[in-house]
Inverse folding.
């Protein structure tokens, strides 16, 4: 069954796209990540133009993050003030990201940028997670206490001006670090088509030292904000959002996520992290392969 | 509109010969819908007024369908610091987005090279109007021909069938990935390497229905379109959290 995508201007097998949405939704429910970092490369492998893939994945991220944020909101586990401050930086970052995106697309380097940013990022994150999860798995087998990563004490962060009180996070810190983190994640979101949860969550825990119980809800609010703004900017400046593609992905994604959450309840944290690490590294290797292997055809058509 | 187009056959070559072409197209409008998987059109025609009693030399029919002119950017990958990146590029302007050719015999047997070049008949005789490139553009042009042929957007076949002495037809496949716009269906009658008669008929390919409206919406009111995409995602996310409410 084929369906024609009006913006990508191509016909796709909608079952395949729905399957991708389901699969990535399942993984995002299982691992508690947005899944943009998997969905964008998958769409590109299928043949969707990188630009459309990056811009459209954000709809998928919005839908699955809303679902998660509503659950966190009921538990009152969201620091809206912190999310607002990060989002202020995120909006600016998004604007810069969309602008860079347009420049790179004109220069025909979109695929290169997607690959070059994904390979090191996925490689590093996958590597760290693999090491940590293997160490925990081994520690559990030998009966030792699991290794804990201690947050580093960043004295310089506490020396920054413009301090504000974040009651929900029980913090009194400068608003500069959250704004900078928000800016970076916003820019990344626009360029790479990811929500950025895998950057914000460690940054909140290890840099800002927010309590773990508000981290997930707060990061989801920031991600939703950035994803919405990026979708609007991509739609107005690059005409790259394909609403038909988005609808199929979103339906698959929200259903898949529910099954993922259920499956995740049966696994232990370090087992989940081990599997996710393997997945992340596999995506990184696949992208690296495309970069370093001699292409079958040196010429390609595209862009304008 | 449609009937007017149907009769808008334009005669753009009228040599003194007695032979005339009459040709038609099975469709003058192709609408791309959400389930469009590509289609076939039929170009058919007849040769009128064959010379009686004259010595018979071979007559040939060439059917050419050209898509709207487009800019084709071809990039070449080069190895830079161990990584294959798009390095050199050539922008070929004025190449058709779609090109189909069917002939009753191999082109070389039908007409001399200068005639084929003049009418830009044959893939190898397609030249861009202008080129933006720092290098010799020929390898880029060859790459464009190769890629577009692989995507079935450029085709050169021998698929003109003669149903009788004077009746002929050709099947023209229109794949799913074609550009929207005005196409030209050209039929040439060759004898002794010269064009005796030719006809050109317009063919329109357009998106229709929901796809057309979405495309227009996205380009005319991009902000509203973006809001619609966001609203769709937000509502779906909200509905899913209601449908799959988990006991907490």
């Amino acid at each position: 069954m084929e369906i024609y995508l009006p913006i990508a201007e191509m016909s796709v097998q909608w079952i395949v796209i729905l399957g991708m949405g389901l699969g990535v939704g399942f993984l995002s429910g299982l691992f508690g990540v947005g899944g943009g970092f998997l969905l964008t490369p998958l769409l590109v492998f299928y043949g969707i133009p990188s630009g459309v893939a990056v811009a459209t994945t954000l709809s998928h991220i919005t839908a699955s993050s809303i679902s998660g944020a509503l659950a966190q909101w009921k538990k009152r586990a969201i620091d809206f003030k912190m999310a607002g401050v990060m989002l202020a930086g995120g909006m600016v970052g998004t604007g810069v990201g969309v602008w860079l995106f347009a420049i790179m697309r004109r220069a025909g380097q979109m695929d290169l940028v997607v690959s070059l940013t994904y390979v090191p990022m996925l490689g590093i994150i996958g590597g760290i997670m693999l090491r940590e999860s293997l160490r925990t798995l081994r520690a559990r087998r030998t009966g030792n206490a699991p290794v804990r990563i201690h947050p580093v004490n960043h004295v310089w962060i506490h020396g920054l001006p413009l301090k504000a009180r974040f009651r929900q996070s029980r913090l009194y810190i400068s608003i500069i670090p959250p704004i900078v983190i928000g800016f970076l994640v916003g820019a990344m979101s626009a360029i790479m088509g990811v929500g950025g949860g895998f950057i914000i969550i460690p940054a909140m825990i290890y840099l800002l030292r927010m309590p773990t119980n508000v981290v997930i809800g707060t990061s989801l609010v920031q991600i939703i904000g950035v994803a919405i703004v990026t979708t609007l900017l991509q739609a107005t400046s690059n005409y790259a959002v394909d609403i038909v593609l988005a609808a199929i992905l979103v339906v698959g994604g929200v259903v898949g996520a529910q099954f993922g959450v259920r499956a995740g309840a049966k696994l232990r944290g370090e087992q989940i992290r081990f599997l996710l690490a393997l997945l992340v590294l596999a995506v990184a290797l696949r992208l690296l392969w495309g970069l370093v292997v001699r292409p079958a055809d040196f010429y390609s058509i595209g862009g304008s | 509109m449609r009937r007017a187009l149907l009769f808008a056959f334009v005669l753009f070559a009228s040599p003194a010969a007695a032979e005339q072409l009459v040709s038609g197209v099975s469709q003058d409008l192709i609408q791309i819908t959400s389930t469009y998987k590509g289609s076939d059109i039929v170009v058919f025609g007849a040769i009128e007024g064959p010379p009686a009693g004259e010595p018979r030399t071979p007559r040939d029919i060439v059917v050419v369908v050209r898509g709207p002119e487009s800019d084709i950017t071809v990039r070449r990958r080069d190895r830079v610091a161990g990584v294959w990146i798009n390095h050199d590029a050539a922008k070929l302007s004025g190449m058709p987005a779609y090109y189909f050719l069917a002939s009753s015999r191999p082109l070389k047997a039908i007409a001399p090279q200068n005639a084929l070049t003049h009418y830009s008949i044959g893939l190898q005789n397609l030249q861009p109007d202008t080129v933006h490139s720092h290098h010799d553009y020929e390898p880029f042009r060859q790459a464009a021909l190769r890629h577009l042929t692989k995507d079935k957007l450029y085709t050169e076949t021998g698929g003109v069938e003669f149903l009788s002495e004077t009746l002929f037809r050709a099947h023209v496949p229109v794949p799913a990935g074609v550009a929207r716009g005005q196409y030209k269906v050209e039929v040439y009658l060759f004898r002794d390497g010269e064009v005796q008669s030719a006809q050109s008929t317009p063919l329109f390919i357009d998106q229709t229905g929901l796809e057309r409206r979405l495309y227009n919406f996205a380009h005319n009111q991009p902000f509203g379109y973006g809001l619609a995409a966001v609203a769709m995602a937000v509502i779906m996310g909200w509905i899913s959290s209601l449908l799959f409410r988990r006991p907490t």
Observations:
- Chain A has one domain: 2-292.
- Chain A has a mean pLDDT of 81.
